[in-house]
Design brief:
Distance between the termini: 18 Å
Number of strands: 37
Strand content: 35-45%
Structural class: mainly beta
Largest sheet: 5 strands, antiparallel
Low-confidence stretches: none
Mean pLDDT: 94
Shape: globular
Radius of gyration: 20 Å
């Protein structure tokens, strides 16, 4: 356990811990690359180092050893809070993307941006400000984690400003000299669907990709498929209300790609419904829809699906998992059949829940779901039965999502006693 000290004071609240939709990032560094990274001596000397990165709302980015929890390098100090949506370049270039989602603080205002960092010297390489000339909405932050293409190095992400971005880094990485330079080329895509208001085009979640197709939803509920090579729309579907949860894709076979998405209840008001959908990712055609029962809109707390879904594999390959929160009344984890959306089982949760579930498997393909409630209660659940195997109570609340590497789960909490936890799964 690592306690997260200090905090930022926002306009209306103190910002602590790991916020929604943040998630720890875990990487196993190759031996040659580890030698030139900005790690401390103990971390450089450790074989098969697995490094954990967690961005906090206290303006710090933490680097930890997955096994021991000890610091692997000095924490980076920002003058802005991070919601913990981190992405690492996937072509072995040591470049980290860090999104910034809150710029207006109690005592100062800092421009929101997407930041790129060099992990050899732990310094900023470049940034893109959210106050873009093409911005559509009233927000300028970056909530979601970008995607990197390992072949081209390109980065794709959406902004709360109503702009979808692609970035070609044109990076020069010299492994021998341990130098990294980037000259980013940014491309932008904006849209306005029929009767859609420009201020409701913000993208709050992360994007998903299949080949050259990128998928995302916006605050109006427009789910789109866009070809990133041409920055033109392939199809668009109106789901009826705000989409915050990151879209999940399932490549069932060479000819079938399923897309799973769900909405929150924001713009619809008290008559609104939360609908979970399976769409054909290549055409946008709806295969089935499941309306989550008993959800009632309230201005006091989030209602609907904010947590990203889990697509089951192994022995759970026929199930997709969604968590729907019901304001202050709790939440429910649903296991739905992939083929028809039927409820295989459901598990009531006792507190509001916006943290995404994660699936874990053993060598035989047996599956469990790990779900954290907003109250800090952590569940280990049989993926096929919905039976609770065990629970654990963490200090503080949970907004962000957990990450798992083999048998270690990493999760961070919020609140006065916020902390980062490394938990052994047995």
């Amino acid at each position: 356990i690592l306690l997260l000290a200090c905090s930022f004071r926002g306009m209306s609240a103190t910002l602590t811990g790991l916020a929604w939709p943040g998630q720890p990032l875990i990487v196993k560094w190759p031996t040659q690359l580890r030698a030139i990274l900005g790690l401390n001596d103990a971390a450089k000397a450790k074989q098969a180092l697995k490094e954990v990165m967690v961005g906090g709302q206290n303006g710090k980015l933490y680097f930890l050893d997955l096994v021991t929890g000890e610091a692997t390098r000095e924490a980076l100090n920002f003058d802005w809070p991070s919601n913990g949506a981190l992405s690492l370049q996937t072509n072995a270039t040591p470049m980290l993307a860090v999104g910034q989602h809150i710029g207006v603080l109690a005592k100062k205002t800092v421009d929101n941006a997407m930041h790129l960092y060099n992990l050899m010297n732990n310094k900023e390489l470049a940034s893109l400000k959210g106050k873009d000339k093409l911005m559509r909405s009233n927000y300028s932050g970056f909530n979601g984690a970008p995607l990197f293409d390992k072949n081209t190095g390109a980065m794709v992400f959406g902004g709360e400003n109503g702009v979808l971005y692609t970035m070609e880094p044109h990076d020069e990485f010299d492994h021998v000299l341990a130098t990294l330079k980037v000259t980013p080329a940014w491309q932008r895509y904006t849209w306005l669907a029929d009767k859609q208001k420009a201020k409701s085009t913000n993208i709050d979640g992360s994007v998903a990709m299949y080949g050259s197709y990128v998928y995302f939803g916006d605050q109006s509920g427009i789910v789109q498929c866009v070809d990133v090579n041409t920055l033109t729309p392939v199809w668009a579907v109106n789901t009826g209300d705000n989409v915050d949860a990151t879209i999940a894709l399932d490549m069932e076979n060479a000819d079938s790609v399923a897309l799973y998405t769900a909405n929150t209840i924001v713009g619809q008001g008290r008559t609104g419904v939360c609908t979970i959908r399976r769409l054909d990712a290549l055409t946008g055609k709806q295969a089935w829809a499941f309306t989550v029962p008993d959800l009632v809109y309230t201005t006091e707390a989030e209602v609907g699906v904010y947590a990203s879904p889990v697509v089951g594999t192994g022995k759970a390959s026929g199930i997709v998992y969604f968590t729907a929160t019901n304001g202050t009344k709790g939440a429910t984890l649903y296991a739905l059949g992939k083929q028809d959306g039927s409820v295989k089982w459901s598990l009531p949760l006792t507190s509001p829940t916006i943290s995404s579930p994660v699936a874990v498997y053993n060598a035989n393909g047996d599956a469990w779901i790990v779900q954290a409630e907003g109250s800090g209660k952590l569940y280990l659940i049989g993926a096929l039965t919905g039976q609770v195997a065990t629970t654990m109570q963490l200090e503080g609340g949970v907004e962000g999502s957990p990450a798992v590497y083999r048998d270690v789960l990493v999760i961070a909490t919020t609140g006065a006693n916020s902390a980062i936890y490394g938990i052994k799964l047995e």
